[in-house]
Specification:
By secondary structure, the protein is mostly helical. Helix content is 72%, strand content 0%. α4 packs parallel to α7. The two termini are 14 Å apart.
């Protein structure tokens, strides 16, 4: 599988771009030209220049520096949300699809209930119930979104559970945990990789939306959604302030969506025919 990915040009370009963005965010102090928290009200709304390549915001802070530091919470929280969502969804989907029977009925009825409500409304409700905090935002996203992935992963498990290698492993006496971890999980790994890449894009939009509404990352932490929230207050006087974080969110989400597409194409068994 790894060799097929390395031979796929689209995967290499997209993953390279995402890794580059993550690298810049991790080593933000080395790339940011200024302190993202340093204010200078006398220098607010400065135009693009060599000193301030993207200008300054309504408090005189360097927008480029805040964009670079904003990669950490924007991408980091999205990855953390994805890991929690895919992890919980995978466990429930594996158990439901493999064991079937009453366990499957209970899990799927819970999934049906979760999916019957609009996910964004449910996220708002959970955040309002637990309080405004980044940890609550991540928890809300995981609790609401896992059901969709559990159903998708269950479908994949049902396609593999009666294959010969699974039956043989069961006949020779391997326990259920061994079969699930050594046979079933690798069999659906490609589907999970596609779902994970798409989930990060969804998480970025969701976390940025909540931060924009004042329910996620709070100022003065430089997060792209929170930067949009601050920029809306200066929309009439300096609309350019919204461009950088807005475009960055669109580009990064598009990159992850494209990564999901190329993963699906690269991992498609028909490509080997």
């Amino acid at each position: 599988m790894l060799k097929r990915l390395l031979r796929h040009r689209g995967f290499m370009l997209t993953s390279g771009f995402i890794i580059l963005i993550a690298f810049v965010g991790i080593f933000a102090p080395f790339f940011a030209p200024h302190d993202p928290y340093e204010t200078n009200i006398l220098n607010k709304f400065a135009r693009f220049s060599l000193e301030y390549p993207l200008g300054t915001d309504n408090l005189g802070r360097c927008i480029l520096s805040r964009m670079i530091y904003g990669i950490r919470p924007t991408l980091g929280l999205a990855i953390l949300t994805m890991l929690g969502t895919i992890g919980l969804g995978a466990v429930m989907g594996l158990i439901s699809g493999y064991f079937g029977g009453l366990i499957d009925e209970i899990i799927m009825r819970v999934v049906d209930v979760m999916l019957s409500f609009p996910s964004q409304i449910m996220v708002f409700a959970v955040v309002a119930l637990l309080g405004i905090d980044v940890r609550n935002v991540i928890l809300a996203n995981i609790l609401i979104k896992w059901a969709w992935y559990a159903r998708m992963i269950r479908t994949s498990v049902l396609q593999h559970k009666d294959k010969n290698f699974i039956r043989f492993s069961r006949v020779v006496g391997n326990n259920e945990f061994f079969i699930l971890s050594k046979h079933m999980l690798p069999s659906i790994a490609s589907e999970m990789a596609v779902l994970a890449s798409l989930d990060i894009g969804w998480a970025i939009i969701n976390i940025s939306t909540l931060s924009f509404l004042g329910l996620g990352v709070q100022a003065p932490i430089p997060e792209w959604g929170a930067m949009l929230n601050e920029a809306k207050n200066a929309l009439t006087t300096n609309p350019v302030q919204m461009l950088a974080p807005g475009i960055a969110i669109v580009v990064l989400v598009t990159a992850f969506n494209f990564l999901g597409d190329v993963l699906r194409d690269a991992l498609d068994p028909k490509e080997e025919m």
